[in-house]
Write a structure and sequence with these properties.
By secondary structure, the chain is of the alpha/beta class. The protein has one domain. Helix content is 52%, strand content 16%. The strands form 2 sheets. Strands 1-9-8-2-5-3-4 form a 7-stranded mixed β-sheet, with helices on both faces. The chain has a two-stranded antiparallel ribbon with strand order 6-7. It starts with a helix and ends in a 21-residue tail after the last helix.
Length: 309
């Protein structure tokens, strides 16, 4: 049996089963522990992952080294990268724990700033695109909006392993949120917006086989998806950047000013300008809280010759 066939038919299914088994064990352990203990356990597991998961650790360190040029020592870079893994562990613990909480308990985890901005937009009956990054606890933002009674839909990608997909779907929809899968097409997103609902998107990491424009992100030229701006243009809905930040052991949900898309006639320049707008907002939060973004993603690998012009 060739190695590629062996990997596909034997190694990958066994690996996925073991990961799923560990995930289910973590789920039941977190359910049994008080929230503070579950968060501490998640942070410890994040530290362990930093030590063990070499590829993602090295990629995070490489990106930090390339982008955050104001960090001069390797020790500081490693501390930051380790903090990223620890934050992901905390986030995972919270999300595994929250489905067992009452709606009031979920709302009590978060202090919010600017929900009135969403309220004012919904009064205009056009819905809104809520844009965030893989930053802070983005999954908790979805659950928080749901328990606060907002008609929130999140655009998500189906996971290859059916067990993972069903498990994650259950967590994300546990308090009333709705998922729109990317393979269901733009029509369902537009329908939700026209029904005056919120559609959450996370476009900060590169997605293959979609339209992109060149922008500057964290001081580096890269390609970023134009989907949010195109969707806002089609629906006449604003883009509202939102962020779930962990500060001093408590989550703060911040809503930025809406970005209203105006069709200037020059489609290429319009897509570039408004995409750069929201990218700059996301960048501001990443620079302020660098340990709360997923630095292990290959964010800057796609750059065409046109991008350097």
């Amino acid at each position: 049996m060739r190695y590629t066939t062996l990997r596909k038919k034997v190694i990958r299914p066994v690996r996925n089963f073991l990961i799923y088994l560990v995930l289910k064990i973590c789920f039941f352990v977190c359910r049994a522990l008080p929230l503070s203990a579950a968060i501490s356990l998640g942070a410890a597991l994040g530290s362990m992952a930093f030590a063990v998961v070499r590829r993602e650790r090295d990629r995070a360190l490489s990106n930090i080294r390339e982008v955050l040029t104001d960090i001069h020592s390797e020790r500081e870079r490693r501390l930051l990268a380790r903090g990223v893994f620890r934050n992901l562990g905390r986030n995972a613990a919270v999300i595994l724990k929250v489905p067992s909480f009452s709606r009031e308990a979920v709302a009590g985890l978060v202090t919010s700033e600017g929900l009135d901005k969403i309220d004012r937009v919904l009064e205009k009956r056009r819905g809104a695109l809520l844009l965030t990054g893989h930053f802070g606890n983005w999954e908790l933002a979805l659950l928080y909006l749901a328990v606060r009674g907002y008609p929130i839909n999140a655009v998500a990608r189906r996971l290859r392993d059916g067990r993972f997909d069903r498990f994650v779907h259950t967590l994300r929809t546990s308090h009333g949120a709705t998922l729109i899968y990317r393979d269901e097409g733009v029509r369902r997103m537009l329908r939700a917006l026209r029904e005056n609902k919120l559609v959450g998107v996370l476009p900060d990491v590169d997605i293959k086989d979609v339209d992109t424009v060149p922008v500057v992100f964290l001081g580096q030229k890269t390609e970023v998806v134009t989907g949010p701006v195109q969707l806002a243009l089609l629906s006449k809905s604003p883009i509202i950047p939102v962020f779930m930040v962990l500060e001093a052991g408590r989550y703060r949900f911040t809503i930025e000013e809406p970005i209203c898309i105006e069709d200037t006639g020059d489609r290429v320049e319009m897509l570039r300008r408004y995409t750069q707008h929201w990218v700059s907002v996301v960048e501001r939060y990443i620079r302020q809280y660098p340990d709360q973004w997923i630095w292990m993603h290959e964010r800057w690998r796609f750059l065409t010759s046109q991008d350097t012009k």
